[in-house]
Specification:
Chain lengths: 366, 334
């Protein structure tokens, strides 16, 4: 075994452990287990480690709306591009967002090439310093992501208010996972046997927000981590529940997820944001599925400050990201996949983000 | 003497001459360069390999190297990968007005040291100074010439089923070092660029290992992109074993943290060597006993299969496909 195998292919990526878990899943399953994950990191891990090739064909993987870039609506992308064109505005964003095209093919990357000041942030905290050191500029952070990223962004807004940083604002496109799952099930848009719940999101909000899966829809779910053994463990829990005919919401990632979530993160979320109706790519408007700035923080709202609320945009022609996000279409079934739409020339957001299911299938798919 | 580069230094007049004499010739001196003719006159017979590359890396100085040494190693390695012995380099500098002279001198001195180590002479050069903001400090172009000494040099289209795939050491060190240094990220295990000249190891392999089919240095795009290119050029299928691919602990850690794949990160002092199975043990032994190849490993094999396909056996026992790097993972790393 090489050094790499000795050093890193142990613990949660130990080949023996993974094989054992995969075998246990195969042995215990009697019928089909079609599961949906709703987390971009799960999507990537499943493809990157080749997990599908270790599991029986009866385990079917459906990738749901779990990639934050992918679910960002074309209108939100158009608003960010419009913002970047305003003189003396600096737009801070996570790296993946800069290549997402609006319906006309424009992106923040192109805006940047034409002279807009667009800066990639590895952490939302960076934007505070940008605002402090550019008092003559308006600095706007493009807030994209789920319950996982939203608390850090909320903390930044809180800090900006405490410091009286009047040149900083937030274009919040943050989204909440439970209302999206509720929406999919309500509209009978998805036919899945179980959910593999996102470990990162649950670290923040805990298990309770997903209780409706069991009570309203009798669908079992397991919270899973992101190493290969974590995902296999989650799937094993789902397989066992199916065989034993149990419907529960099980925490299969207890080393990171507490049933009640993270109270500190929840507190800052509750203070800075309020839930509101949000537009999801491919899914449309979903009630209470977005995080918007609470009245006490409205001064930091870039949607209002720059009068962006009336911007409209639709999905690029031919793009089927919506159906891919619902798990109704496999990326390879999209006529644009790998032809008109590739990671370097993406049409839709599922191909842009490294966490998008189209990009994962393009990069790693067998 | 001035302390900063002025537009005058690129004028071709006295200031230019002084700069050439005081910095470039002083450090890079050799009998051809010191004649200061319009062109270098060289004595070469037989087939030659020629390669050119431009270096724009930011930051200029990073753990394990700088733009000067990189400009030598990068081009020397490209020439060496054709099975040639690198002999001569040209270098063109584009310098931003206002650059501190001592920074330029540090870069040129490092270049001279790298050239000496790589056993090449910088025989001709050019300097341009552009107004502030037109380039970022210094850009360097180098062109290399080398003599091809073997009858049947390695090429990207010569991988055949039955061949084994070797790498000369750990993957991803350069790419991650530049990213980490640029963003001010520190990992528990320190990392540094692997920037180095591979001519010596190539020469030894060419002399002693037997018929090498392919030699490539996996620079931008990393191992994944280069292997995929080879699979396409040779119209073969290549299978890689993830668990056998050497990756330094610091790189592994940083990649896990940043969500990067070491297979896509650039290397500047590593090579891929593909050769018939029977010659592989000898080649591995040569690599491992050479300074440039201590952690060399056999990481895969060429098989008859879907032409152009690269399959990775993942560390946990799954399989997936490997594609070329799409888009820019990280700009200006070399």
């Amino acid at each position: 075994m090489s050094d790499r195998a000795k050093n890193t292919m142990q613990g949660y990526a130990d080949p023996k452990l993974c094989r054992e878990l995969a075998d246990k899943i195969a042995q215990s399953l009697t019928g089909r287990l079609r599961f949906m994950e709703v987390c971009g990191t799960h999507t990537v891990s499943i493809y990157r480690f080749g997990l599908r090739t270790m599991l029986p064909l009866t385990v079917e993987h459906v990738s749901g709306p779990g990639c934050p870039v992918c679910v960002t609506h074309a209108r939100e992308v158009a608003a960010s591009i419009a913002l970047a064109a305003v003189p003396k505005v600096i737009v801070g964003t996570f790296g993946d967002m800069i290549r997402v095209p609006d319906s006309t093919g424009q992106s923040l990357q192109q805006a940047k090439a034409q002279g807009a000041d667009v800066r990639i942030c590895y952490s939302p905290i960076d934007i505070l310093q940008t605002a402090r050191s550019n008092p003559g500029h308006e600095v706007v952070f493009l807030g994209v992501g789920f319950e996982t990223t939203a608390p850090a962004v909320a903390a930044v807004v809180k800090q900006a208010k405490a410091e009286g940083l009047t040149n900083l604002s937030l274009l919040s496109c943050h989204k909440r996972i439970p209302p999206a799952l509720q929406f999919l099930l309500q509209n009978q848009d998805v036919a899945v046997d179980a959910f593999l719940l996102p470990g990162h999101v649950c670290t923040v909000i805990g298990l309770q927000p997903f209780a409706f899966l069991r009570s309203e829809y009798t669908i079992p779910a397991a919270v899973a981590g992101f190493e290969p053994a974590d995902i296999l463990m989650g799937l094993f829990v789902l397989a066992r529940m199916q065989v034993e005919n149990r419907v529960e919401i099980v925490n299969a990632y207890p080393r990171a997820v507490k049933d009640k979530g993270n109270p500190t993160a929840l507190a800052v979320l509750g203070e800075v944001f309020v839930p509101g109706d949000a537009d999801w790519r491919g899914l449309g408007k979903i009630q209470d599925s977005g995080f918007f700035l609470a009245p006490e923080y409205k001064d930091f709202d870039a949607w209002e400050r720059f009068d962006l609320e009336d911007i409209e945009d639709k999905e690029p022609p031919g793009c089927q990201c919506g159906q891919v996000l619902k798990g109704q279409l496999h990326p390879r079934q999209c006529p644009l996949f790998g032809r008109k739409c590739t990671p370097s020339r993406p049409v839709g957001p599922c191909m842009v983000s490294t966490e998008g299911s189209c990009a994962a299938v393009f990069r790693y798919g067998m | 003497m001035h302390t900063h580069i002025l537009l005058d230094h690129g004028s071709g007049g006295l200031a230019s001459q002084r700069l050439i004499k005081d910095i470039f010739v002083r450090h890079l001196d050799n009998p051809v360069l010191s004649l200061l003719n319009d062109a270098a006159c060289l004595d070469i017979s037989g087939p030659v390999a020629m390669s050119t590359d431009t270096f724009t890396v930011t930051p200029l100085f990073f753990p394990g190297g700088d733009i000067g040494s990189l400009a030598v190693h990068g081009t020397v390695n490209d020439v060496a990968m054709c099975g040639a012995v690198p002999k001569y380099l040209s270098c063109g500098f584009i310098i931003e007005e206002g650059l501190e002279l001592k920074i330029l001198e540090r870069v040129v001195a490092s270049m001279a040291q790298a050239a000496e180590g790589a056993e090449v002479q910088v025989v001709t050069g050019d300097t341009k100074v552009v107004p502030k903001g037109a380039v970022d400090q210094i850009f360097i172009n180098t062109t290399g010439l080398g003599e091809i000494l073997v009858h049947d040099p390695p090429q990207g289209n010569k991988a055949r089923p039955g061949d084994l795939v070797l790498v000369s050491g750990s993957m991803g060190d350069h790419g991650l070092t530049i990213l980490a240094h640029r963003e001010g990220l520190a990992f528990q295990t320190p990392i540094q660029s692997d920037s180095a000249a591979l001519h010596g190891l190539v020469h030894k392999l060419m002399q002693e290992a037997g018929a090498i089919h392919v030699l490539r240095d996996p620079t931008r795009g990393g191992l994944a992109t280069t292997i995929k290119e080879i699979a396409e050029q040779s119209a073969v299928c290549i299978e890689l074993d993830e668990a056998q691919i050497p990756v330094n602990p610091g790189v592994e850690e940083g990649c896990a943290f940043l969500g990067l794949d070491p297979l896509f990160l650039a290397n500047e002092g590593k090579m891929i060597c593909i050769l018939p199975r029977e010659y592989a043990p000898k080649a591995l032994q040569i690599m491992r006993s050479h300074d440039m190849g201590h952690s060399a490993a056999i990481v895969g094999r060429v098989i008859a299969g879907h032409p152009g396909r690269v399959v990775l056996n993942t560390g946990i026992g799954g399989q997936r496909l490997v594609h070329m790097l799409e888009g820019e993972q990280l700009p200006r790393i070399c």
